[in-house]
Amino acid sequence: MRDRLGDRIRVQHILEAVELIEGFMMARSIEDLAQDAMLRFAVVKQLEVIGEAASRIAQETLDAEPAIPWKQVVFMRHVLVHDYYRVDIPTVWSTVTNDLGPLKQAILRLLATLPPAP
To answer: Which residues does the annotation mark as catalytic?
Structure first.
């Protein structure tokens, strides 16, 4: 275990972040994401949470759900945090509209295999 929270809690954090983004983006467009700074910052922050949580999950747990491109998830977090000035709205939009649904399904499968948190 890489830290005191444990893998199950980290995976739950990913699920919570995905669900927050789903709520933020309900009935929203790419134009909304580009023009509404509060919306954009909220979505980007949750994408950062997803990547940070993923970076702290044990490799054996990551290996249990190979459908998730874990390295890309963590890499996106690095770009959003360290290259914040280069955040590309179409990339964020594509991630939210194309990748979060499959990520959520894979995270739910993974959660079903993990032991309960202590």
So the answer is: 77, 82
